[in-house]
Give the backbone structure.
Amino acid sequence: MKRQIILFIFAFFAIISSLSAQMTVSGILDSTVSMQAGAGDAPDFSSGFEEYANIRFQSKIRDRAAVFGAVNLIAATGNYAANSAVLAGVGTGSPFNSTSYIYGENYIAGIELERLYFRLSGKSVNFDGGLMRLPFGYGQVFGPSDFLNPRNPLKPDARPRAILGTAFFWYPTEETKLLIFYSAPRDPFMQKGDGSFFGLSFDKHWNKASIQTLYCFETPNTNSDYGIHRAGLSVKADIEIGLYIDALYTYNYEAETKLDGLSFSAGADYSFFDGNLIILAEYLYNGENSSTAPGNGGSFSYNNYLYTSLTFRFNDYTNLSAALISGLDDISFTPIITLNHDLFQGSALIITAQAPLDRDLFYGDGRRGELGPVPPDELQPLLPMRMGRYFDFSAKIRLRF
């Protein structure tokens, strides 16, 4: 396995070098160190080092077609490696979530194909097919409509996952877009196609506002003998203050879905001092069977959440943001502080700190919260132990090329 991955890496860069005249290559390289104060059964203190690269490439074929791709490469040690092993690649906190690693004496390493698709272009139509991203909705934080690629605001650096499918885009005018799409089932070993996604969306843009409607049908599968319907609406407006609404309703006849199938977010942002200070707030209602709930690939287990953030730009090179994710049902919070400083063109230093909080931390009354240091046992089904953290700190050098 180790030899195969090494040969793949060499072959990949050899192909890029041989086609450099026809291919555009770009990407990022992140070198990150982290320290963590553990809670529950986690070590009292841990540290780690991670080297991560996302390499993107595209090649045009005359004026009518193009090929796009992206590959993730990673080497990790310490708590990055331990988290990957414990969670088998699910929600590790790294933008790289793979279950295939090489284990060495000094580090673990892995490689992942992130994007690989083609595009055929016409005068007012496009056809895409392959491993690609299909984003939906205008929500900035929670993204209820983005059900194929769920987001987690606790991991803002994580790159959205791709889907294997096809998409047909039609642009009747410059302000309108019709999308018809297909996505393969979530279970990649489903040979009969049970659980496939078929849908369409429509976008309309004006000078100060945009609207998107969405419908998707998931064919019958183990979760529903009748299939699952999803319908969404997303609106944004820029009128002094930026406003946006994003909602998706999931209906499963067998589950007798009612309000619990709704995921709804509403937010606003406003800038002061010529854009140097930006304030953002977004509320989420999360139904138990909705797109943002764990059963559908989401990250939230209760009903009501609030995200607030303040970003201040000191100059063209440095900005500081303070965000707070609040679980309103169980009174738990995760504040996130991020400092971003451009060292020089194409290079940045990013420092991030998180400190989960809940009532048990302050009062010791056993009322642990979802966003607290150690989530309740019923919310940790993937973990063999009560793993948590009191404090997370990371420092990252990001190079763009």
